[in-house]
């Protein structure tokens, strides 16, 4: 855990460097693994106040010696608690208990939420994070007219990654290398060969997609790749399927190219294959982490989807959205790897690195890729050469992989903070940078407005429906652009509001005319 703590850019501490004395033990005869036992005991001690916020834990070596277990047992327990947000590494000074003021204790058996949940002031001491303002940290500040709340806000809307923690040395090195190259005078419609090689290797390692540089085109992002595919494949009036609820930009891109956009239903696992019409020219889907419901398309359904595409002649456009970030689940193969001749794979660095990079990829069968390249040439479309060179350096040196590993751990802590408070209300939390909370339809609007008044910005499911009567109502909660502390505070506000509106729903039937 000491290695983990020093591998992250974390705030310095002024707390004493003495460790708390932990009265812990593990039972070698118990069926549970020793690391799990230790994690459970530490978690319980932090819940009941035996171990307090800010206290330093013993080193893995010292605690292993105290318990007479291997250091690996302690390391695994610490790593799990760190991922859940219970522990906080401090650079150069060890492992500390995180701020537990917004953790909700386990509910005593037989008591309901109303009798156990502490008042808002007890769980959320205030939205102000401390002496250093959130505006200095680069977080948004709400206008005075936004929900009646002026000042710093907690933005829990989906779609944005964390861009305030990156390897500055690697970043500068990549852009210096790009600046050392002369300007290009004839952009390649396929992209720089150097970056295409690096992306092919990245896809092979990260997504088990066996492609070569000749199968990869460098685009400016998912929307750009989608537009190029639409301009190449579609004629006015062609029918195109888009998930509903789903990514509104995809719908807009196809409509702008004159296609008839068909809403295709999704459930908790992803697109419903049996509901797909047979006359679609193209189907756009997000199987790695459906946006916004959060499902992962199971392998049997993936196979049925590809069988449908082969039978109907449709092209499946796979947006590999959020595939880089998975929690507690093994990765599923990309659709493209199951049928490279029928699937176009789109990806981007906007979520894994930063939205303003403007670099992504399009993987397609050779004939289709050549047709897309001709379309791109005709449209004068191109991807920035210096940006491509810089991204190639980040990939070749392994800097992007290291950044992804670091951010997976950081996002896992934020996701765990949401699940810790909202529990079974949360769905779609196995991957990505957002989760969903299903709520009664009538409660969504008032709850969202009340949260905005408290300085917490939320997204509602209705924004992502395209037509007909929405089957699911609720909130889409993003945790990419908010810090761990902001996520904890924001979700505590949300938990209080859910309790309030749920109680209002419970008493509503008794109200007379």
Structural class estimated from helices and strands: alpha/beta
End-to-end span in angstroms? 61 Å
What order do the strands of the largest sheet run in, or round the barrel if closed?
6-13-12-11-10-7-8-9
How many beta-strand runs?
Answer: 18
Strand content: 5-15%
Taking the sheet with the most strands, its summary is:
8 strands, mixed
Tell me, briefly, the overall form: globular
Rounded mean pLDDT is: 81
Helix amount, in percent? 25-40%
Number of helices: 17
What's the Cα radius of gyration? 25 Å
Low-confidence spans: pLDDT under 50, at least 5 residues? 1-18, 102-146, 506-513
Can you walk through the features of this model?
With 513 residues, the protein is of the alpha/beta class. Helices cover 39% and strands 13% of the residues. The protein has 17 helices and 18 strands. It has helices at 2-6, 34-47, 60-67, 71-84, 113-116, 120-123, 168-179, 193-207, 222-233, 248-256, 299-312, 335-338, 366-379, 385-396, 399-422, 441-453, 484-507; strands at 87-90, 94-97, 141-142, 151-152, 154-155, 216-219, 239-244, 260-267, 270-271, 282-285, 315-319, 343-348, 360-363, 426-427, 434-438, 456-457, 459-460, 474-478. An 8-stranded mixed beta sheet has the order 6-13-12-11-10-7-8-9, with helices on both faces. A 4-stranded antiparallel beta sheet has the order 14-15-18-17. Strands 1-2 form a two-stranded antiparallel ribbon. Helix 11 (299-312) links the parallel strand 10 (282-285) and strand 11 (315-319). Helix 7 (168-179) crosses helix 14 (385-396) and helix 8 (193-207) packs across helix 14. It is globular, with a radius of gyration of 25 Å. The model is unreliable at 1-18, 102-146 and 506-513 (pLDDT under 50). Pfam families: Aminotran_1_2 (PF00155), GntR (PF00392). Residues 32-100 form the HTH gntR-type domain. This is GntR family transcriptional regulator. One of its GO terms (molecular function) is DNA binding.
């Amino acid at each position: 855990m000491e290695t983990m703590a020093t591998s992250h850019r974390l705030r310095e501490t002024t707390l004493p460097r003495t460790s708390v004395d932990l009265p812990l033990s593990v039972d070698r005869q118990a069926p549970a693994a020793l690391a799990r036992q230790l994690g459970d005991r530490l978690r319980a001690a932090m819940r009941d106040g035996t171990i307090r916020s800010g206290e330093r834990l013993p080193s893995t070596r010292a605690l292993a010696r105290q318990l007479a277990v291997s250091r690996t047992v302690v390391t695994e327990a610490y790593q799990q608690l760190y991922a859940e947000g219970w522990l906080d590494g401090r650079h150069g000074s060890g492992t500390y208990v995180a701020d537990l003021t917004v953790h909700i204790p386990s509910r005593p058996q037989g008591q309901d939420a109303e009798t156990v949940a502490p008042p808002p002031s007890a769980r959320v001491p205030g939205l102000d994070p401390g002496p250093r303002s959130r505006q200095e940290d680069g977080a948004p500040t709400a206008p005075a007219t936004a929900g009646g709340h002026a000042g710093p806000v907690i933005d829990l809307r989906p779609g944005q990654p964390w861009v305030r923690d990156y390897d500055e040395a690697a970043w500068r090195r990549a852009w210096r290398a790009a600046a050392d190259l002369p300007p290009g005078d004839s952009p390649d419609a396929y992209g720089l060969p150097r970056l295409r090689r690096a992306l092919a290797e990245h896809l092979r390692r990260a997504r088990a997609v066996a492609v070569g540089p000749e199968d990869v085109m460098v685009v400016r992002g998912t929307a750009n790749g989608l537009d190029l595919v639409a301009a190449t494949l579609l004629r006015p009036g062609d029918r195109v399927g888009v998930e509903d609820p789903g990514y509104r930009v995809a719908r807009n891109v196809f409509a702008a190219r004159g296609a008839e956009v068909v809403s295709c239903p999704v459930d908790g696992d992803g697109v419903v294959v049996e509901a797909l019409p047979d006359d679609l020219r193209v189907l756009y889907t997000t199987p790695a982490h459906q946006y916004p419901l959060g499902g992962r398309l199971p392998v049997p359904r993936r196979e049925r989807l590809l069988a449908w595409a082969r039978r109907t002649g449709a092209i499946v456009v796979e947006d590999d959205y959020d595939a880089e970030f998975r929690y507690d689940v093994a990765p599923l193969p990309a659709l493209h790897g199951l049928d490279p001749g029928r699937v176009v794979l789109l990806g981007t660095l906007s979520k894994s690195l930063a939205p303003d990079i403007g670099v992504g990829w399009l993987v397609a069968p050779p004939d289709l890729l050549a047709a897309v390249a001709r379309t791109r040439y005709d449209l004068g479309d191109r991807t920035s050469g210096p940006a491509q060179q810089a991204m190639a350096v980040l990939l070749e040196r392994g800097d992007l992989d290291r950044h992804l590993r670091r951010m997976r751990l950081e996002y896992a802590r934020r996701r765990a903070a949401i699940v810790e408070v909202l529990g079974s209300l949360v769905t779609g939390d196995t991957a990505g940078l957002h989760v969903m909370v299903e709520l009664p339809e009538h409660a969504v609007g008032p709850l969202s407005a009340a949260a905005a008044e408290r300085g917490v910005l939320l997204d509602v499911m209705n924004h992502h429906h395209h037509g007909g009567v929405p089957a699911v109502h609720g909130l889409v909660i993003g945790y990419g652009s908010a810090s761990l502390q902001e996520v904890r505070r924001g979700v505590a506000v949300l938990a209080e509001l859910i309790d309030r509106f749920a109680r209002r729903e419970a008493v509503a039937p008794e109200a007379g005319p």
